């Protein structure tokens, strides 16, 4: 079953001017991973440094494999540096209610 992952990102006030370009680069890597279906990015209307990435994955297993890859030296990225650790992830599955 497909899974939706919401990555809540708060860019640090001292993040470099090219922070969004760096996030775009991270997302390019994400889009290339097995089981990836789609990703959209939305921006908070009251805080332009607050982004939410809405990712769709084929399955929880595909998302788990992606998250495990991100924890390796090969998959490491600079989101922690750009956010000061202000990133959270919540995953959802579709329901019929």
From TrEMBL:
SUPFAM superfamilies: Dimeric alpha+beta barrel (SSF54909). Gene3D superfamilies: 3.30.70.100. Pfam families: ABM. GO terms for molecular function: monooxygenase activity. Residues 9-74 form the ABM domain. Keywords: Monooxygenase, Oxidoreductase. It comes from the Bacteria. InterPro entries: ABM_dom, Dimeric_a/b-barrel. The keyword Oxidoreductase applies. This is Quinol monooxygenase YgiN. The lineage of its organism: Bacteria, Bacillati, Actinomycetota, Actinomycetes, Propionibacteriales.
